[in-house]
Amino acid sequence: MMSARRVATALADPVSVLSLAPDQWTELLAIARAERLDGSLAYRLADLPLPAPVAQALDEARAQAEFGRTQALWEVEMARRVLAPIGIVPILLKGSAFAFASLPAGVGRLVGDLDILVPRHRLDDAEAALLAAGFEWAKTSAYDQAYYRRWMHELPPLVHADRGSMIDVHHSILPPTARPSPNAAALIADSVEIAAGIRILNPADMIVHAVTHLLADGDMAGGLRNLWDIDRLLRLFASTADFWTMLGERAVLHDMREPVALALRLADHIFATPVEPRLAGYDRLRDGLYVRRLLARDGWGRPTRPFTRLAFYVRSHWIRMPPLMLARHLWTKARGV
Amino acid sequence: MHALHLRVGPISFRVGSAWRSPIAALRLLYAGYPQPDEGIATVTARIGPPMPWRRWIRAQVAIAGDHSLPDTVPMALRHGLLAAEMAMNMQVALGERRYLLLHAAAVERGGKAVILPGESGSGKSTLAALLGESGWRLMADEFVLIDLVSGLARPFPRAISLKNSAIAEMESRIGDPTRFGPHLADTPKGALRHLRPNAEAIARMDEPARPALILFPSFGFDPASDGVSRSELFMRLTEGSTNYVALGQAGFEATLRLAETVPAARFAYPNSATGVAIVEQFCAEAGL
C-alpha cells in the first residue's frame, strides 16, 4: 500500500485534486495529517474551488500553521536575546530557518523544536546561558547526558520551564560517529546573516542539511515532509545561476555526495522536482525501496509495510555508529539505564 | 476496516474499526444522525489492535486517528463501543480549530444556552440528560463549541455517556429502549451506558444558541450555591478547554467575551432532582 502517493501528487500537482471522489478526500486528509503535511497541503490548495467541507478543514490547518509560525518566531527571538549578550549568533536550522527567512518550505510547515547551530568551542557558553535563562534538561539520566556529550552532534535537548518549548543546540549536522562527516566549520563560516544576530545556512548547505535529515539521521519517519522541504528549496534555489555547481561542491565538502544524489532522485521521482541530472546520477535498484518506505501509508493514515520500516529502523542505527558501539549502546538502553 | 460515516453538528466523522462489532453498536446508537455534507468526512477516528496479534488473541483495542496521544491504555474488545467514542472525542479535543472547545454540557431554551462545565463526576451529563427530557433542548454533554466569530454556542449532540447510578435513573425515565446502547460493565470509568439524545436534539443540531448562563455543578454535596467572579470564570474556562492555547489570540478573545458577558455561578447538589431544581431556579432568576 502506497497511499501517501496521493498526498505527494496533490502537493506536486494541486489541480489533480479536483477529480477526487468524497472518500478519496477523506483519505487524503487523514494521510496528510499522518505525514504532518496537512498545513503544506492547505496552502497549496488554497486557491482551488474545493468542496465546502474540505475548504473548512484546510482553513483549520492554515490557522494551526499560522499559530505554529508565530510561536516558532517567538522562540527564535527568545534564543537570540539569551545568546546575543555573550556574542553568539545562532544559525537557525530546519523549520525555524524556513519560517524566519520566509522560504517556501516554511509555508504551512509544522515547526517542532528550535534547532540552532553554534561553533563547537562556544557550546559550553551557550549551554550555561540557556540554563540561566530558564531552560532545563529534558533527559536527565547520566547515561543519556554522557552519551549526547561524547557522541552526538548536539547538546541533550533543553526544555523551557515556563514555555515548555524545546531547543536543540547543535555543533554539527551529523553525529561524529556517523559514516559521512560534514564540515561544521565550513557550515558556520559560509552561513548567511539574515537579521541582526540571526544567521541561516547558505542555500547549498541548507539542501545538504535537509538531506542529512532525510537520509542519514533516522529511520525516515516523517520522510515525505523532509523530502517536500527539499523540493520547495530546490525549486527556489535552482533559479540562481551557479546553484547546482555550488551544491555539487558543498556535497563533496560535507562528504554527502551519494546521499545528495539519492535525495535528488527521490524528489524527482515523488514530486517531479526539476534536478540537475549530472548531480542526481542514474536510478539505482534500491531507490525503489526508499520510495516504498516514503509512501507507506494506507487510506486510514496507518503505517504499512512493517518489514520495510523495520529495515530502515535497523539501518538508521547502523549508519549512525560503528557495530561494536551500537551493540554497547543497545545493551545499555535495554537494561533501562 | 469496518467503517461508519456520520455528522454531529459541524463535525463529520469517519470511524473505522478492525472489528465489526463496535461499528455495528455505533451504527445502532447513532441511528438517525445525518451523513457528512457532500459525503466528505473530514475527521478520521479509528480503533484497532495495539499489536497485530491482539486482533485475535486476547483482543485489545487501541484508540487512534488523525490525532493521537502517546501512551493511551488499550481497552478490552467488549468495551469497543466506548473506545470508538473515545477515539472520536480525542479527534475533536486535539484537532478542532474552528471553535473554542469547552469541556461542558449545555442545554437550550428560547434560543438561550445554559452551559454546565465540569470534570467527569460533576454530574453535568446526567443533569443535561434530565433537562433534555424536560422542556430543554440538549446541545451537548461533553463538548460545547463556541464560535470564534459570533460567540454563539454550536450544538454537538453526541451520545450521552451515563455512568453508574445515572444509568438506572435515565432508564426509568425514558420509555424507548432503542435510544440506549449496550450495558458496558467494569469500564475504566465504571459501569457505563450510552443514551442517544432525543429526536429534537438531533433534528436541531445545526441551530446555535446564545450563551446566557454558566453554572458549575458539583454532585454529592448538600445544596449550596455561590457566585463566580469574572476572573475566576476566565481561569476556569481556560482550564476546561482542550484547544484554548492552540487557538492563540482568537481563543483568548472568545474566552474573554464569555467571561465578560455571561453570568456565572457554582452550585452543589446531593441528587439529580435537587440539581435540576437548582438549575431551574437560577434560570428563573436570570430570566431564561
Give a quick set of tags describing it:
heterodimer; A: 337 residues; alpha/beta; 7-stranded mixed β-sheet; 16 helices; 7 strands; globular; B: 288 residues; alpha+beta; Rossmann fold; 8-stranded mixed β-sheet; 5-stranded mixed β-sheet; 8 helices; 31% strand
Description of the structure:
The complex is a heterodimer of chains A (337) and B (288). Chain A has helices spanning 5-12, 22-34, 38-44, 52-83, 94-100, 123-132, 142-151, 184-189, 203-216, 223-237, 243-253, 257-271, 277-280, 287-294, 306-318, 323-334; strands at 91-92, 114-117, 135-137, 158-160, 166-170, 192-195, 198-200. Chain A is of the alpha/beta class. Chain A has one domain (5-334). In chain A, strands 3-4-5-2-1-7-6 form a seven-stranded mixed β-sheet. In chain A, a hairpin with a 5-residue loop joins β4 and β5 (166-170). In chain A, α10 crosses α12 (257-271). Chain A is globular and about 55 Å long. Chain B is of the alpha+beta class. Chain B has a domain at 99-158 and 197-288: Rossmann fold (3-Layer(aba) Sandwich), CATH 3.40.50. Chain B has eight helices and 16 strands. In chain B, the strands form three sheets. In chain B, strands 6, 7, 8, 9, 10, 14, 15 and 16 form an eight-stranded mixed β-sheet that branches. Chain B has a five-stranded mixed β-sheet with strand order 1-2-3-4-5, with helices on one face. In chain B, α1 (20-29) packs across α2 (80-95). At the A-B interface, α2 and α4 of A face β2 and β3 of B.
